[in-house]
Amino acid sequence: MRTIDDLILSGKKVLIRVDFNVPLNDKFEIADDTRIRAALPTIQKVISSGGSPILMSHLGRPKDAYELKFSLKHIVPHLAELVGKEVQFAEDCIGEKTQEKAKALKPGDVLLLENLRFHKEEKKGDEEFSGELAKLADVYINDAFGTAHRAHASTTIVAKFFPHEKAFGYLIEKELTNMDKVLNNPAKPFTAIMGGAKVSDKILLIENLLERVNNLIIGGGMTYTFIKALGGKTGNSIVEEDKLYLATELIKKAKEKNVNLIIPTDNVIADKFDNEANTQTTATDDIPEGWMGLDIGPETITKLKEVIHTSKTILWNGPMGVFEMSSFQTGTKSIAEAIAEATSKGAFSLIGGGDSVAAINKYKLKDSVSYVSTGGGAMLEYMEGKVLPGIAAIKE
Ligand code: AMP
Question: What is the pTM of this model?
């Protein structure tokens, strides 16, 4: 893996694709700076090596033109505070003025470019636009894992202009190392826990994992597609009717591969999708009409804890129930806690996918698991076994 440590940075202008797509409130203040902090080791490395970081990112979803609310200038003061030095700002990510600013940078000076997505060419992966970005620097570093699955100008195409002077930053390096550990070299027993709303989003991931895991736990809304495929009564729970055959195939494949497939046996059901709904605990295959399963039940939680506690590698993607509502969070919270306990006893745990990351944060267990991935879609695609264009562009 070619990382920033393999490049000479001294005296170089270093174009770094970072992910500064942070949430801003209506006063343009940063609501959560996790992504900025995640890029700091790479930025600091360039500064301490005597290079000049030129930072580029997207922010939000502008409609191919300037929009004040998506301007990266809002993050300049906080970025400067985190980096511990002045941050210059270029009002456009390309063009003569920006080139002049880049040229004038002295070793250790930091320049942030305006939102890449103010140009429609960014998402199109336009070659000419990529060339304009490339003019700004001697070296290209990609450290934006969250967009590595997109073949955009700044994440992929621009790499062509730096055939040798290109590398991953520390964040991408960390993401790849942790995912590869789970995919290619897991200590056994290896348990994957799949949850979330729908099985359709996770089919490729489940298929890839069936080749590798000892235990595959199914939870969340996708449970009911499996239960129905097995002939159970699912009431009003979410079922993907067009995926029943697929669920049957996955069950069959798990048997063939000798994977212990664990489908919840009991659950908390509700008479409406509401925190204040009436609830009761039933078997997952015996849900009355008018009721829906919104969390795993106590018997299932006990069983899952046993499996998690004896695992040496754990991958968790997707909540066990509607954890956003306090009445249906017990399953997700218990599983998060069990993963933290297993980690403290030496297991390696990787958490990924937007909602399981949200759950880990909600229960303040971020520092009690081995690694929390920063890239939702990118992580999912990598774990499915796909080649991500942003990763391939550096490796080529
Ligand atoms: P995903 O983005 O596919 O990982 O799905 C996450 C969402 O699935 C969360 O917002 C949960 O509230 C939701 N979810 C989890 N379990 C259930 C369930 N049993 N029924 C409906 N939605 C669920």
Answer: 0.91
